[in-house]
Amino acid sequence: MQKIDYTKYKLKTKIEILEMLTGHKRVYILSCNKCFNEFTLDVEPETAELNKTLNEAGKTTIGFMALDFLCNKYLTEKALNNAKKDIEEADAVAVISCGVGVQTIAELLNIPVITMCDTVNQGGYHGISLNPEKCGACGECYLSVTGGICPVVDCSKGLINGACGGAKNGKCEVSKEKECAWENIFRRLAGQNRQNILIEQQPKLRNYNLNSVDFVETYVKSVQAKRNEGFYGGIYPEERKEFTSKMAVEKIAAPDLVYIPLQQHAGAVCEPLVKKGDKVKAGQKIGDSKALVSAFIHSSVSGEVISVESKKHPLLPFPVPTIIIKNDKKDEKDTSILPKGTIDTIKKEDILTVVKEAGIVGMGGAQFPTHIKLNSSKPVDTVLLNGCECEPLLNADQRLMVEQPEKIITGLRLLMKATGTTKGIIAVEDNKPEAFETLKKYIPEGSGVELLQVKTKYPEGAERMLIKRVLNREVPRGGLPLDVGVLVNNIGTAAAVYDAVYSGLPLIKRVITVAGTGVSKPGNYEIPIGMLISDIVKICGIQIPVNFELKMGGAIMGFPQDDLEVPVIKGTNGIIVVMKKDDLNEEPCIKCGRCVNVCPMELKPHKLVHYAKAENWDKSEKDGVLNCIECGCCEDICSSKSRMVEIFRKSKKMVRERKK
């Protein structure tokens, strides 16, 4: 199917361009890669065409930059800061874009910004990032002579040849909440010492039959208010948490057999400490590793080891050594399970030892060994507890906060003590009022623990996003929270740390949410590590309808399970049934810009897809594919129905393999 070209700008004629650049010898070119046009080129041809025109006229091109979506003010400002030195050497910036991009650049730079294009009228809103800057698509763009402020749109009367004289105290007499556009124009031109430009180059009468942009004003403001709230990007998926949010945690008895993988953590696989025929007790260490990054493995039941063999893993694409234990139903505890102290008596270094011996990992899904985080050489001033649980359907962390608030708070205080910091924050999204109010009652005075309610937004639970929201600190790309003095842990992890210290119990069980279509007994359940999904399916009466799938994890970031004979592991926070993504054929990318707007890692997902399909792994790496957190925001909003997360997982694998 042939795509319609909705390109929003066209280059002015050479005569017009040179007239606009009269008096400017040294020019920096900023161009916008066309949106709503099938993605085939990294840099549009107008850049080279303009550069040739300037050189032939004896002007010097100081440099050029081609950006996706100039109107995305947040990302554009960052790019301009990186090129600040070169731009400052120019006496004008020539902008190739529609009027929205020109206005954005003019607001960010304090030198003459000259528009090289006329905006094509396609009807509707121009620009993709919902900034306050707008464009009426006049077809005759004179932003060059008005300082980058559009009088057609910003002036309530649409006056293009000067002010009406009716403004009072800088406010328009028609729309009293608006500033007078022409006063702003004169002020900006004066700041650039260009007061005479309007006399030298006067705007022509525009066509007033063109579409008005006012009809999108309310929508733009409401969406923009959400877009950058707390952190850049993100989406607002249907939450569907009401199905299990009020259901108290129920314990599910351990099954006849448990299958315990020797890799339930980021890092090296553990070596088995037991063999077929050995008797084990609940809480006994059965997997060990001398590697720097790893986490010990323990038995969740007492009984007999019947096999140590490679079995399919729920998350990894290859089989993993697994210890299969026949449960004797006696639940005999290992002798190592003894209280290790209290928040007042245990020493800092002992907390580190206890956490390591307990095999505790991040329980929000990442599964990074907690003892390594705690033992960092980098200084920590804040321990941040993630109580957001922003994935749809999941309520496991919420129920822990409601039912075991003292355990959560004490677990946080133990983490604070282990890092030597006196500041701890629990961040809870505002869609969990019961959890927030319950925790508030149990925070000891003078403990250094602060409870903070944050507005709901996905993927707020990701470490980088949460730190930006709560502390307004920006973790650098490729960096870690520890680089900005923050240690982030999950609610379940804090509970596990409490259990390890106060009872000596290693991480052998966890709370998960079971929910979704076809689940007759949804709820929040305490599950022993190693219990097969197939056993949970039977207990919870799960029937997977046609066109639905079972996922381990959340509805967006969870991993589909085509084989139910795989176990619950330390990082499992949900077993859910959701509709499969539609089978409609993927369409070519049209650079609508939605994925760029919602990517919380500030990547260009559309470009990463383009590079992956071309197997250009160098460009994939350069454009930051390894920084993708696989949150799925881009895929959720993609108008071309691209399987972006799957593509990025492959890209990351290929990039890493090339580095070996």
Could you give a short description of this structure?
The protein has 22 helices and 23 strands.
Task: Describe it.
There is one protein chain. The protein is α/β, with parallel strands linked by helices and 660 residues long. The strands form six sheets. It has a six-stranded mixed sheet with strand order 7-20-19-23-21-22. Strands 3-2-4-5 form a four-stranded parallel sheet, with helices on both faces. The protein folds into three domains: 9-227, no CATH class; 232-580, 3-Layer(aba) Sandwich (Rossmann fold), CATH 3.40.50; 594-659, no CATH class. Strand 16 (424-429), helix 14 (433-442) and strand 17 (449-454) form a beta-alpha-beta unit. Helix 10 packs across helix 13 and helix 19 (605-613) crosses helix 22 (644-659). It is 29% helix and 18% strand.
Annotate the secondary structure layout:
Elements: E1 9-11, H1 14-20, E2 26-33, H2 46-56, E3 60-68, H3 73-82, H4 84-88, E4 92-96, H5 99-108, E5 113-115, E6 117-119, H6 151-154, H7 181-191, H8 197-200, H9 217-227, E7 249-251, E8 257-261, E9 271-272, E10 279-280, E11 285-288, E12 297-298, E13 303-311, E14 320-327, H10 348-357, H11 370-374, E15 382-387, H12 396-403, H13 405-419, E16 424-429, H14 433-442, E17 449-454, H15 463-471, E18 486-490, H16 491-502, E19 509-516, E20 523-528, H17 533-539, E21 548-552, E22 559-560, E23 574-579, H18 594-598, H19 605-613, H20 617-622, H21 633-637, H22 644-659
- What would the CATH topology of the largest domain be? Rossmann fold
Which whole number gives the mean pLDDT? Answer: 88
End-to-end Cα distance, whole Å, is 41 Å
* Structural category: alpha/beta
Tell me the total number of β-strands. 23
> What spatial form do the alpha-carbon principal axes imply?
elongated
Which CATH first-tier class of the largest domain would you pick? Alpha Beta
CATH homologous superfamily classification of the largest domain:
NADH-ubiquinone oxidoreductase 51kDa subunit
CATH-defined architecture of the largest domain: 3-Layer(aba) Sandwich
Radius of gyration: 29 Å
Q: Biggest sheet: strands side by side, in what order?
A: 7-20-19-23-21-22
**Secondary structure tally, helices:** 22
The portion of residues assigned to helices is 25-40%
